[in-house]
From TrEMBL:
<keyword id="KW-0479">Metal-binding</keyword>
<dbReference type="GO" id="GO:0016706">
    <property type="term" value="F:2-oxoglutarate-dependent dioxygenase activity"/>
</dbReference>
<keyword id="KW-0408">Iron</keyword>
<feature type="domain" description="TauD/TfdA-like">
    <location>
        <begin position="15"/>
        <end position="291"/>
    </location>
</feature>
<dbReference type="InterPro" id="IPR003819">
    <property type="entry name" value="TauD/TfdA-like"/>
</dbReference>
<dbReference type="InterPro" id="IPR042098">
    <property type="entry name" value="TauD-like_sf"/>
</dbReference>
<dbReference type="GO" id="GO:0005737">
    <property type="term" value="C:cytoplasm"/>
</dbReference>
<comment type="similarity">
    <text>Belongs to the TfdA dioxygenase family.</text>
</comment>
<keyword id="KW-0560">Oxidoreductase</keyword>
<dbReference type="Pfam" id="PF02668">
    <property type="entry name" value="TauD"/>
</dbReference>
<protein>
    <submittedName>
        <fullName>Taurine catabolism dioxygenase</fullName>
    </submittedName>
</protein>
<dbReference type="InterPro" id="IPR051323">
    <property type="entry name" value="AtsK-like"/>
</dbReference>
<keyword id="KW-0223">Dioxygenase</keyword>
<dbReference type="GO" id="GO:0046872">
    <property type="term" value="F:metal ion binding"/>
</dbReference>
Length: 311
């Protein structure tokens, strides 16, 4: 596990909930040195998600450079950024535009936020370790994003069930993006960073994952992409996954909800956090932002690691 040096202690920070979320009021991302960025990554991993208010001076090019720096301590090779399968040809390929407008609106549905919980790109052999999202257009009301702690989701399970889950692996499948590609006319990206190549968007990962920054265990399944526990029959797998999906969606006491202002940035640890956007506003209102996601290590489980509660 990495140790926080204290280089960000001079900035005002508020713990948002006991289990997840830390908010900085006066920190400017573009003024941090390398040591402070390293410490910020540690705080993100410890708190799940960090919110930075009033970052209007940040543009997509700076986001890319920040994404490379926050991910540079991890194998992949270091500093490699993910390219989303549905990213159209553009100047900054590693920037994913999150929007409910135009062709990409096919990604958005009328499903409630409780059905939208996911971790990004878990269908990749090497998913992202962090994500940084900044919204540039928002509705006056609604459009919040929620995050849920995979650490706490693990800790809330009984020990016999935790022990059983630690022996299992699941298939994550993102091939639904092929259907969206056909509708939108966007060609699937076959080279998406590191060993994330080809057009079959599937990978197998452990159900319980160890975070290398904190050394803590986390539940690592999500309703968006996890389709099958490979060691179980389909009936057993469906029953257990549905229980875990409900456990995540219903874990109100280890979730945090963020009300965006234009220019705010949220940075989260994609290894140990789930998130979901609320679509509670009129779809004619544009909600748009830019996200960058550095690639990390291949998901693994270390039997000697501790849960956050144990640590």
């Amino acid at each position: 596990p990495k140790k926080y040096s204290g280089s960000l202690d001079r900035f005002e920070a508020v713990k948002v909930t006991p289990h997840i979320g830390l908010e900085f009021r006066d920190l400017k991302l573009n003024e941090l040195n390398d040591q402070q960025i390293e410490d910020l990554s540690i705080l993100v991993s410890q708190n799940g998600v960090v919110f930075l208010r009033n970052q209007a001076e940040i543009d997509p090019k700076f986001q890319l450079e920040f994404g490379k720096k926050i991910g540079e301590k991890f194998p992949t090779p270091p500093g490699t950024l993910h390219i989303h399968p549905l990213t159209p040809p553009q100047e900054l390929n590693e920037i994913l535009v999150i929007t409910n407008e135009g062709k990409l609106a096919a990604q958005y549905t009328d499903t409630p936020a409780s059905d939208g919980w996911h971790s990004d790109f878990t269908f990749e052999k090497t998913p992202s370790n962090y994500a940084a999202l900044q919204l540039e257009r928002i509705p006056e009301e609604g459009g919040d994003t929620l995050w849920s702690s995979g650490y706490a989701a693990y800790d809330r399970l009984s020990k016999p069930l935790r022990d059983f889950l630690e022996t299992l692996h699941a298939e994550h499948d993102g091939n639904r993006f092929h259907d969206i590609a056909k509708v939108t006319g966007v060609k699937i990206r076959t080279e998406r960073g590191a060993d994330n190549v080809g057009d079959d968007l599937r990978a197998v990962h452990p159900l319980i994952r160890t975070n290398p920054v904190t050394g803590w265990k986390s539940l690592f399944v999500n309703k968006g992409f996890t389709k099958r526990i490979v060691e179980l029959s389909k009936t057993e797998s469906d029953a257990l996954l549905n229980f875990l999906f409900d456990h995540i969606a219903g874990g109100f006491d280890f979730q945090v909800r963020f009300k965006w202002n234009i220019g705010d940035i949220a940075i989260w640890d994609n290894r140990s956090v789930f998130h979901s956007a609320t679509r509670d506003f009129d779809p004619s209102i544009v909600r748009r932002g830019n996200r960058v996601a550095p690639l990390g290590e291949k998901p693994y489980f270390d039997g000697a690691s501790l849960s956050r509660a144990e640590a």
